[in-house]
Amino acid sequence: MKKIVGLILSVLTISVSAQSKQDKVVLVIHGGAGTILKKYMTAEKEKAYREALTESLTKGFEVIKKGGESEEAVIEAIKVMEDSPLFNAGKGAVFTHEGKNEMDASLMLGHTMQAGAVAGVTTIKNPITAAKTVLRNSAHVMMVGKGAEEFAQKQGLELVDPSYFKTEERWNSLQKVIEKDKDKMELDHDAKTQAYVPFNFVDEKFGTVGAVALDQKGHIAAGTSTGGMTNKRFGRVGDSPIIGAGTYANSEVGISSTGWGEYFIKAVAAYDVAALMEYKKLSSKQAGDEVIKKIGQLGGDGGMIILDKNGQASFPFNTAGMYRGSITQSGKITIEIYQ
Ligand code: ASP
Questions:
Q1: What is the pTM of this model?
Q2: Where is coiled-coil annotated (predicted)?
Q3: Which of 75, 206, 264, 275 could form a disulfide with 32 if both were Cys (CB 3.0 to 4.6 A apart)?
């Protein structure tokens, strides 16, 4: 009898620990990668970032917990960061050379392969909701500038005066960048990269935001939203609104990127993670590491958040830090900033 009880207990223990091991991640987010060093961070600032990331995870998780769609979880999580002045998306977006805020966003659903994106928009309060409207209510994948804004307005999205997006901190960043040589500038966000670009459009960190969610049906959605890079001009658009570069999702995995967009476009970075998994049978983590290595070899920097259908999350990046977080099925939140 004792033996049987012992056996039952050990079976129970094994299944309980197997269950706790299976506390899979259901939502991952990022608030940008870059030269985020602890020595430059005040306790107050770090607290503010942690609170904003926690709120984003909590809002997205509420959707998943209720049995809602991964698409909605991604939108809710991203909206929190777009509304926060701390991130380079929505309010708090970086400035173009001309002193404007031009924003990009994209969204993709893995189970249907539907995608929507907007680029260069200046009046849509939450650009991620515009990406969703393109995905849901149009026959297109990407809309840009005035046309995208007209469509958003017709769809009843909230439009704001462009001054809504302005923050002092981002304005000062632009002034600092403009004071330097405009034609030949060294990138100041990462001392190891001494590359020259035709015009200086960089900031010391990338504050783009993104989210990938896995809902109870096993559907994956990924989204990204950004103001781009400080001092960008000539209608420059980065990777964030480009499906396959900044955002990608299929039935196996979802990815959102942040970093020096030109490199993520050339590497077709987000899609490459999915392709390495499909064709080379790499795990989602191995695939992400491989792609970030490639970005580094090309001379670029940044990071990605990756979540696969098994609830495996990874956060590869080659910068000093990346604002990132995850929440599991049971509601366990993890937030990290530095390497
Ligand atoms: N990837 C974005 C871009 O190049 C910038 C960022 O991640 O903050 O527009």
A1: 0.90
A2: none
A3: 206
